[in-house]
Amino acid sequence: MASESFGGCCILVFAAEAYDQNAILTAAGITPINLQSITIGNGLTDFHIMLAALCRYAMHQCSRFFPCAEHLV
Question: Which tens digits make up the pLDDT trace of 9-59?
Fold first, then answer.
């Protein structure tokens, strides 16, 4: 199972549900989903934490090119 960007918020829930449903499928004699791994590419997992980190990163990069902005970092 794979996802990118905003899918990082959803893929964990989908994978957990598939994992949980496998027990029900197995009990019913149905072949379960072969979920071996999940992949999140450049995923958004926690908007508030990631936005704060992005702001700090942008301010740091800005201070490299504009020394007058060093006090903002």
Answer: 788 888 999 999 999 999 999 999 999 998 888 777 777 777 777 777 776
- This prediction has a pTM of 0.57
SS3 35: coil
- For the stretch 52-70, what's the b/e string if a residue is b when 16 or more beta carbons lie within 10 angstroms of its beta carbon? eeeeeeeeeeeeeeeeeee
- What one-letter code names the amino acid at 58? A
d(CA 11, CA 47): 15
Alpha helices (H) along 1-73: 11-27, 47-65
How long, in residues, is the chain? Answer: 73
Which residues, including other chains, have CB under 8 Å from residue 72's CB and lie 6 or more apart? Answer: 59, 62, 63
- 13, 17, 36, 11: which is closest to 2 by C-alpha? 11
